[in-house]
Amino acid sequence: MAKITLSNLAHSYVPQPKGPQDFALKEMDHVWEDGASYALLGSSGCGKTTLLNIISGLLRPSQGRVLFGDRDVTDAPTAERNIAQVFQFPVVYDTMTVRDNLAFPLRNRGMDADYIRQRVQAIAQMIGMEAVLDRKARGLTADAKQKISLGRGMVRQDVNAILFDEPLTVIDPHMKWELRTQLKSLHREFNHTMIYVTHDQTEALTFAEKVVVMYDGRVVQIGTAQELFETPAHTFVGYFIGSPGMNLLDARIEGNVAHIEGSVVPLGAGYGPVSGRTQIGIRPEFVRLSASEGLPVKLRRVEDVGRHKIVRAEFFGREINIIADEGAEIGADMTRVTFRPERISVYADDWRVAPAGQLGEAA
């Protein structure tokens, strides 16, 4: 296992980049702790797989260094980094049995036969493939083959890190939940450093201790599920995390109030001068419908999703989402919304602004 340090790291696929727009990964400095589990989360094209491939050694960064512990591995090939990697689509040896596929990484390293047998049996049980251990991989479904890939990635106990690149894409939805649970169990048991790439917030938030949110080639926040939900450091985090995501409204900030389209919204704290494009962000969970106070809105529709209702409304051409209790009565006269002041975040040019007297928050 190893602490992974990314120092002054950046990457461009353009031979002679002329500016930030030419970089798939913008400059970053991060330390990922030994034995922790991380999820790399973001939409397609944000740089997740590029970053994972740099860590694994499949790609050399344009600038900066990658360290495993105190060792600089920037120029070290994948084979020397002592990692296991599971890709989006299954990589198995069709002519081998499931048992031999799982045993392959251990036999390659000359492990003891009894140890190999025990580890293969334990991993087969974890991925639910005990009954087919002696079947050839050829002819198995893509779902089953990907489980073999997962198992082969996890069979070794001596790796520096296990890297997963959207490994559950081809897995049946019910099995996804089961395998995520098993991965968490494996992490608790062996404390491997795990990095899991996904665009699915549910996968990220249920698997990882900390989620690394990426946007436009940049890490915009690293945090727990609670931190990402309660204090998004960037508007993308607010929008991307949650269902529906955070409501964002252009506003002028003045002390402890926000001015929005001629209305005044009280904030839960005071702010100094805020420049740039300023917005307030509020989660739908902390918005309330009212008949008499707040911002004027037009109700568009109500979606009953079982546990609660999602009310879709419009405010000066911008959509506002409200989460109401399942049993809440939504009258035709409820055409205003109020926000819980202590749950409002202020943003300038997409980055969260700390209230006056507090230190700013970094990603």
From TrEMBL:
The keyword Nucleotide-binding applies. GO terms for cellular component: ATP-binding cassette (ABC) transporter complex, substrate-binding subunit-containing. Residues 4-241 form the ABC transporter domain. It comes from the Bacteria. Gene3D superfamilies: 2.40.50.100, Nucleic acid-binding proteins, P-loop containing nucleotide triphosphate hydrolases. PROSITE patterns: ABC_TRANSPORTER_2. The keyword Membrane applies. GO terms for molecular function: ABC-type ferric iron transporter activity; ATP binding; ATP hydrolysis activity. Pfam families: ABC_tran, OB_MalK. InterPro entries: AAA+_ATPase (IPR003593), ABC_transporter-like_ATP-bd (IPR003439), ABC_transpr_FbpC (IPR015853), ABC_transpr_MalK/UgpC-like (IPR047641), Mo/tungstate-bd_C_term_dom (IPR008995), NA-bd_OB-fold (IPR012340), OB_MalK-like (IPR040582), P-loop_NTPase (IPR027417). Keywords: ATP-binding, Cell membrane, Membrane, Nucleotide-binding, Transport. PANTHER family: ABC TRANSPORTER ATP-BINDING PROTEIN, MALTODEXTRIN IMPORT ATP-BINDING PROTEIN MSMX. Belongs to the ABC transporter superfamily. This is ABC transporter ATP-binding protein. It comes from Paracoccus caeni.
